[in-house]
Amino acid sequence: MMKDIDYQKIFHEIATELGDIDNLGEVATYIPELGKVNPAKFGIHLTTVGMNHFSFGDSDEAFSIQSISKVLSLTLALKLIGKDVWQRVGVEPSGSPFNSLVQLEYEKGIPRNPFINAGAIVVCDILVSCLNNPKEEFIEFIRHISGIQSIDYNFAVAESEKQTGFRNYAVANFMKSFGNIHNDVEPVLDFYCHLCSIEMSCQELTQTFLFLASGGVNPVTNEVVISPERSKRINSVMQMCGFYDEAGEFAFKTGLPGKSGVGGGIVAIHPGEYCITVWSPRLNPNGNSYKGMKVLEAITTKTQSSIF
Hints:
Layout (H helix, E strand, L loop, with lengths): L6 H11 L25 E6 L4 E5 L5 E2 L4 H13 L20 H5 L10 H14 L3 H13 L8 H10 L1 H12 L7 H13 L1 E2 L1 H8 L7 E2 L4 E2 L3 H14 L5 H7 L4 E3 L4 E6 L3 E6 L10 H14 L5
Helix pairs in contact: 1-12, 2-4, 2-10, 4-7, 4-8, 5-9, 6-8, 7-8
């Protein structure tokens, strides 16, 4: 175990040091509802596996977690059908934008990993096949594993995504032409847009994802979310694929498994130690939080807490 670290002090130091980058990056506007977010918002929450909490800024304000939810949909799919998930989606970094169609042509409708849009849509298709009421059962799964009953969808964001998700519809139909989408495209994409619209705060995300820092058991609820082996697998895919075509850069500079979302949130895991969430809505050109990436790099540098 790491020595006791004064994370509170470190958060204040980093916020001061990075103060001059507050206006760098752009809020996601291609989903109109996301463009309404105050770009100056900034929150951090860290929870250790020993249940020590450290927070800074807007850590209790809910925001659209977007692609961070793809980790949770993968978790549920692994619980339901196990390793059969990997027959339909790979575990390799994509090296391409999150909504790319190019690789699907070469690889005959099998997405590179479950965190690019195509892979997450396949996971949604798996859940639509397995669940009677996918949207209701998925949100109940998250409430159960987190112990937070107030977590919910933002239906305005979900509708905004559906109205502008032309490329996602193209991706889903393209994979269906290869036989890798088994259900009708419409209910699969409806479910996908809703899971991306889920709202949580930094504190709630950290509590929800803490199971990945503690061998599959959430120490907040003592819930066995998933086996230690699958927890390791999920962390591995996050390490390699959690930041689209910037995953290598994040691993190189920060050294933790993590997952970003275009709502400006990033969740990162130090297995055996802690889970941390950072939220800053301005995005870099790769669709990852500009300030969030810098904050996490600074935290692991100052605390020497990379997994490497």
